[in-house]
Known about the structure:
β2 (184-195) and β3 (200-208) form a beta hairpin. This protein has 242 residues and is α+β, with helices and mostly antiparallel strands. The chain is built from seven helices and four strands. It is elongated, with a radius of gyration of 24 Å. A four-stranded mixed beta sheet has the order 1-2-3-4.
Amino acid sequence: GLLRQDTQLQIDGMRTIYYGVLTVLNTAAIIALFTPIERMTTEMSGRLSPTILDLFVAIVSGIAAAYAKSNEKILGSLAGVAIAVALVPPLAVAGIGMGWGEVDMFFSAFLLFVTNLVGIVLAAALTFVLLGYSPLHLAKKGIILWMGIVAVVSVPLYSSFQTMKEDIHIQKMLSNLEFSIGEHNIKLTKIELIHRRNSDEIHCEVISTGLLNNDEKRYLKEAILKSIDKKAKVIATFRYRL
């Protein structure tokens, strides 16, 4: 519909997506409300930090799905399965966020869904043009419009990508950090950065040769924050090297 400027086909497609989105969101929210599980799993957390890399993956998926749909030699349901794998899981996590009343969880997962959707639509449109479904002069308007949508979605994705790069850099810096506090040798492991609305948190495991007193713990916190030049809360688990 986008390529051929077929208004009715576009409306039908948008209606299908709209009802599909509502169905998945509400189903996931209801299940989250009535299921006694309130702990975020790794599958959920893996869909809460979309970056520009996810958009590239979605574009490749869209190309593969469009080609599969147009080739009679390839199983017809393959494209639908590929798209469902890209779209339904983040949408389900967004629905769980609704059920739990977690606004940040909803928006983060929904952003990944939108990323996958716009990436698949753009890539599929370009693939269908190359396959001759629509002449370029007719398809150009729809492709330019969708490129604009992709550009808008890319802004928060690029920001997330920069945050991810910074987090990896900080993790590497702290993982290589070894120093002495008083009589104790200190090493940091299992470093994780968590971004809250009001402040960032650094979760880490501290391996020490002995017990630290309060002054030494304060010194440890200051040393961690000074090494990364960033304000954050430090939450540490202590282990002792015997």
